Amino acid sequence: MLGGTGDWMEQSEGIVLRCATGAYDVQVGDEVLTCRLRGNLKKELVYSTSGSRPQRVNRTRRLTARKAVVVGDRVRVSFTGNREGVIEEVLPRSSSFSRLGFRGQAHTIVSNIDLLVIVFACAEPRPDLWKLDRFLVTAHLSGLEALVVANKVDLVGEDGARAAFGEHLDAGYSVVLASARTLDGVEQLRVRLAGRVSAFVGPSGAGKSSLLNALDPNLRRATQAIGGVTFKGRHTTVAAELLPFAFGGWVADTPGLRQLDLPPADRSEVRDAFPELRALDRTCRFDDCRHDSEPGCAVKELVECGRLSERRYRSFLTLAEEAHARLSAASQAQK
Fold first, then answer.
1. Helix, strand, coil shares of the chain as percentages rounded to 5?
2. Fewest C-beta in 10 Å: which of 44, 78, 301, 306?
3. Assigned superfamily of 96-253
4. Angle between helices 310-334 and 129-141 in degrees, nearest 10
5. Residue 257 pLDDT more than 80?
6. What pLDDT band is residue 42 in, cutting at 50, 70 and 90?
7. Homologous superfamily (CATH) for 267-334
């Protein structure tokens, strides 16, 4: 038992399960402590960049709470009694999933995961394949393994689901056809998730919470029907939360994302996020082919003859340009 007499100065490692205003639930062993953040963790030191002078602190910048600590962070805490504690240190993150927030600043949603489960509905709401491409490219740029779940397969049947997500199946992505209602694909998902730290992401209304309840009824996630007029998803999960699976492993349930902007990246990095394009590496006339207007481009030739998806190709061009523009802007801002 933690928090007893004499152990208030002791520090132990834990994992952040939930973040609220000024309070953090941290799993330490078998206990969940309510912790506050040590004041120095709310500050970021801004150093001088002059190459001719010794590096020194020019100023301090106050971090927002959501930048300082996020769900999934491994932290060191000191115990203060009554199942309460103080976060003394945030340990280095092995991975993270972020979105761009205010003024292009990265907002990390969850950290230290090894699998990103991207949930889209087969219908109600209709799958936005352009947005699915964005999630997959963001996963690749974040160094995360991605698993696509085509949920609500009961609404369209297996043939309909395979038709809806056929481009991504043909490209070589891992896609599981599932239904929280009929439990199709649920056991397959349990096998993929057991013993891992995963995060469920996707648009509102895709059925992430319902799918989590089907995977493990003990989770008891709140669910909500989609809008009957617009058929757009409604937010059920309002903040990220890390949950233990009864069959082993952890999962972060995250709020639905209506918009996902790409992080800064080079065009070649975005290209590598498209398996069908990556397989054609070094087949173009020029080694540095951007697959846009260059002569002798193998990708364009395959698109023109119908052997590669034209929609996926156009998606690549759009996302590559967006990521490269953000990379250029970030480079200019540093000068």
1. 30, 25, 45
2. 306
3. P-loop containing nucleotide triphosphate hydrolases (3.40.50.300)
4. 50
5. no
6. low
7. Probable gtpase engc; domain 3 (1.10.40.50)
Q: Classify residue 80 as exposed, middle or buried by CB count within 10 Å of its CB (0-12, 13-18, 19+).
A: middle
Among 112, 180, 115, which residue's Cα sits nearest to residue 148? 115
Distance of CA 210 to the CA centre of its chain: 19
Dihedral of alpha carbons 170, 172, 173, 174, sign? positive
- Per-residue model confidence as pLDDT tens digits over 166-195: 999 999 999 999 999 999 999 999 999 999
Cβ contacts of 157 within 8 Å, gap of 6 or more: none
Q: Where are the domains of the chain?
A: 11-90, 96-253, 267-334
> What CATH number does the domain located at 11-90 have?
2.40.50.140
Closest-CA residue to 151 (of 173, 175, 130, 167): 175
pTM here? 0.84
Q: Per the structure block, which two tokens stand in for 94?
A: 């092995």
**H/E element holding 307?**
none
On whether the CB atoms of residues 138 and 263 are closer than 8 A, the answer is yes
Element (H, E) at 20: strand 11-20
